[in-house]
Amino acid sequence: MAYTTINKPESYFKSVLYTGTHSSVPTVTVGFKSDFLWLKSRTQTYDHNLFNTTRGGTKKLASNNNNVESTTGDSVTFNATTFQPSGQAINESGQGDNNMVSWSWLANGTAPTKTYKVVVVDDSGNKYRFRNSADNATYAASAVTLNLQEGGTYTFDVSDSSVSSHPFVIGTSANSNEYSTGVVYKLDGVTKTYSQYTSGFSAATTRQLIITVAASAPTLYYWCSVHSGMGGQINTNATSGSTNFDGTGLAIVNASSASGFSIIDFTASGASGQTVGHGLSSTPTLTIRKSLGSTADWFVHTTQIDGSMDYLKLNTNVAKADSSLSAPTATTIGADANTNNYIAYCFSEIKGYSKFGSYNGNGNADGTFVYTGFKPAFLLTKRADYADNWRLVDSTRNPGNDGSATCLLPNANNNETNSGARGLDLLSNGFKVRTTDPDSNSGDAGSTYFYMAFADKTLVATNDVIGLAR
After folding, report:
1. CATH number for the domain running over 113-239
2. CA distance 56 to 33
3. Which pLDDT value is given to residue 470?
4. Domain segments of the chain: what residues?
5. Predicted local distance difference test score (pLDDT) of residue 131
6. What separation in angstroms does the CA of 118 have from each of 42, 145, 157, 332, 413?
7. Distances from the Cα of 121 to the Cα of 142, 227, 321, 327, angstroms
8. CB atoms closer than 10 angstroms to residue 151
9. pTM exceeds 0.70 for this model
10. Secondary element (H or E) of residue 426
């Protein structure tokens, strides 16, 4: 019986070591687009630098502080299978080989596909609106501005009867100037010219406009070829992500259901109970979010500590607390009560690839064994019931269990340390705690540790082949 749907975890997550040069910009090969990229110097006390392709490589945050999003200093160029780091903190020279570490996650990559179902409503005149992904609700606002990713292919399904007399088209200005680059028109499954599409629109049963957004495409507009004032603007973005209509608020989402990971760029309205879509096919087990425009903590929300919705703070060592956010669902997460722009990283557990949970300490060198179903490539831990540091170890920096393991502290800018890490063995099917350090294995009654792990090698792949750990 197959164990996992992901045969090669390194296709979705990968840790890569590289050597900083400072005087030139290195090209670091990952093998996929680093939609979420976390960088840290191993030898210097520089901040952890976190980038993503949804915001772009000139905008960064640091996991070890609560600062606003920065657009100065260090930056990254994202390519299809590589990235190029520029700036002292992420490209430091003169510190020896492999002095830098990177952790990369793939979301939707360079060529996402998405379908939008369109309807027409009477909103002081006929207007286009969009349905959610489950097709059981219509978004509450009309003629909204869409964000589409360059390289992405988007199908606008305009088969609903409410649209039959309103041919849905795209142009370079509102209500005019048809745009044809990368556009395919279909009626009843047959490809049509623009004139055939608009003239035969109302008689067709199924209707589609499909666009593959060209690189450097202009700002576009969707409109009715018969009636003016029905549509809105389309932003064509070199950054990643597409508009999501699953929540009560709009979001730009870059998601991979296959690996259970999505990036959400959203603005919270401050309204109680607001939600935004996450783009995954299952309920997230873990979300990490940060306000972009204000000095605010990193919140790590999870139900994997005591079963209720709790939060930890990635930039501090504080113990867990109860969260007031609405629980995530198969389509949405709760938005924050403050009016601000946020970035959120959502993770749903994928058997054999990712695991999020907790374990109890026992205070002795023969500590807890935690079964994950894979050898961890990345292991992030935090004592949840007490103020202790986060610990981050990986199999790239620590390929063997020889007692020399080192860790980095996401809530601090320290260079590598072996405090609290030398006793975390990464095994073929999980990890074993072999330390009395209270940061990883306190003997206090009720000591609980949260962990987040991604696979190096799976145990059994989809073809029932044993995935031997490196």
Report:
1. 2.60.40
2. 12
3. 38
4. 14-105, 113-239, 251-347, 354-458
5. 98
6. 50, 14, 6, 20, 48
7. 8, 14, 44, 31
8. 17
9. yes
10. strand 424-427
